[in-house]
């Protein structure tokens, strides 16, 4: 009996007892479906995070300083970093403090407790891209200028949420209170999220010195840009050398490029996906055990058939091959159904999770779609498990004594 005949016989066996076949394949279906949907979610999250970093720019460098170093008498401030940019124009193009301020936001009688207030310089807005270092663009008005920052003027740029919720779309020239101090709105950012309270659209940018007076968090944060992605690594080295010169220890600062942030996020996501896929793979092992049990029952039920085939000249490898192919076919069909199940779950996840995550990621879309390699590997593993767990029953059938098999009732 060749492979084609054994395959047709296996399909006929599945059709004969549909419910038993379905229950046998259930573990494989659930396992493959779980692996597919987990890999789909992982791909979707990775692609969304990478899109977010690309939107921020591949030449962005984050610098965090804290403390005064070992026996140090001073910190590195923004003026030092300005000097660094002027000294190395072939590597660095801009720097801005990024101060998270603690301010009570109020317009008339309404308070906006979840609004984020950040202090930046005019360099935060890049004229070449007409967007901020974090990828935000202007809908109307202008961004902070050098004069605004230098003179500590009480002006601000607000997000779309405040423009709509507080000013009903007419914000330019109006004033909003930050901890009792009136600030004039000079610009409104384009909508980048779902424009809800506490989202990426619920933000205010003011001159960094003003934000420092309002009070901020622990440590100083700066955003710097290299000339391009290729010079980002060299620019990072220049910044680290300058910081080490002052602090005499790398424990008091951290410098990270967008590429490194992206790599760190991808590594974390990959590690998490491996753990989750390993957990989901337990269902495949359970499915394999189910196939082995049913195949053992099938061998017992077909003992007389095996005896007849052996008496007609069938060899051990023929009997073994027939049952291995039957087990592999069972798991293959279960794998196909599991892939369909997983794709349906991935589609549902795209709709459900995508709406939630996209609103918090500046409008970047989320799509949980498995790759062809994910599907191929899942299917291959399902077939492999069927063959592996089906070998023991197949080997048992192949070793049956034909005389004893013919006597079996």
Provide the descriptors you would attach to this structure in a database record.
409 residues, alpha+beta, 12 helices, 56% helix
What does this structure look like?
The chain is α+β, with helices and mostly antiparallel strands. 56% of the residues lie in helices and 16% in strands. It has 12 helices and 15 strands. It has helices at 3-16, 18-56, 78-87, 146-150, 160-165, 208-214, 232-247, 258-301, 303-311, 316-359, 372-398, 402-407, and strands at residues 60-65, 92-97, 99-101, 105-107, 110-111, 116-120, 125-126, 131-132, 138-141, 155-158, 175-178, 181-189, 203-207, 220-226, 253-257. Strands 3, 4, 5, 6, 9, 10, 11, 12 and 13 form a 9-stranded mixed beta sheet that branches. It has a 4-stranded antiparallel beta sheet with strand order 2-14-1-15. A hairpin with a 2-residue loop joins strand 4 (105-107) and strand 5 (110-111). The radius of gyration is 32 Å and the shape is elongated. The mean pLDDT is 83.
């Amino acid at each position: 009996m060749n492979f084609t005949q054994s395959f047709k016989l296996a399909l006929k066996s599945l059709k004969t007892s549909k419910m038993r076949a379905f229950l046998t394949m259930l573990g494989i279906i659930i396992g493959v479906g779980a692996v597919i949907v987990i890999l789909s979610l992982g791909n979707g999250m990775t692609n969304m995070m990478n899109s977010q970093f690309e939107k921020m720019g591949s030449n962005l460098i984050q610098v965090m300083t804290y403390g005064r170093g070992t026996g140090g008498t001073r910190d590195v401030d923004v003026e030092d970093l300005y000097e660094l940019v002027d000294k190395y124009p072939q590597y660095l193009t801009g720097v801005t403090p990024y101060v998270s301020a603690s301010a009570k936001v109020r317009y008339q009688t309404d308070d906006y407790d979840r609004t984020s207030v950040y202090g930046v310089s005019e360099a935060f807005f890049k004229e070449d891209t007409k967007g901020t270092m974090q990828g935000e663009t202007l809908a109307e008005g202008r961004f902070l200028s050098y004069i605004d920052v230098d003179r500590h003027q009480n002006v601000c740029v607000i997000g779309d949420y405040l423009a709509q919720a507080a000013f009903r779309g007419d914000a330019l020239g109006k004033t909003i209170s930050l901890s009792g101090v009136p600030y004039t709105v000079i610009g409104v950012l384009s909508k980048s999220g779902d424009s809800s309270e506490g989202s990426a659209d619920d933000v205010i940018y003011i001159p960094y010195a003003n934000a420092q007076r309002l009070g901020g968090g622990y440590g100083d944060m700066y955003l710097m840009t290299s000339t391009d992605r290729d010079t980002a690594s060299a620019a990072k080295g220049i910044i680290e050398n300058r910081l080490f010169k002052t602090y005499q220890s790398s424990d008091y600062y951290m410098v990270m490029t967008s590429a490194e942030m992206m790599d760190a996020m991808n590594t974390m996501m990959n590690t998490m996906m491996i753990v989750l896929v390993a957990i989901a793979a337990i269902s495949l092992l359970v499915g394999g055990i189910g196939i082995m049990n049913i195949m053992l029952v099938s061998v017992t039920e077909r003992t007389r058939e095996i005896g007849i085939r052996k008496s007609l000249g069938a060899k051990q490898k023929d009997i073994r091959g027939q049952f291995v192919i039957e087990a592999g076919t069972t798991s293959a069909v279960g794998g196909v159904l599991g892939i369909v199940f997983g794709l349906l779950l991935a589609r549902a996840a795209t709709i459900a999770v995508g709406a939630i995550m996209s609103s918090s990621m500046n409008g970047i879309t989320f799509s949980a779609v498995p790759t062809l390699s994910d599907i191929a590997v899942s299917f291959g593993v399902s077939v492999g498990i069927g063959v592996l767990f089906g070998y023991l029953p197949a080997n048992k059938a192949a070793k049956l004594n034909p005389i004893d098999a013919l006597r079996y009732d």
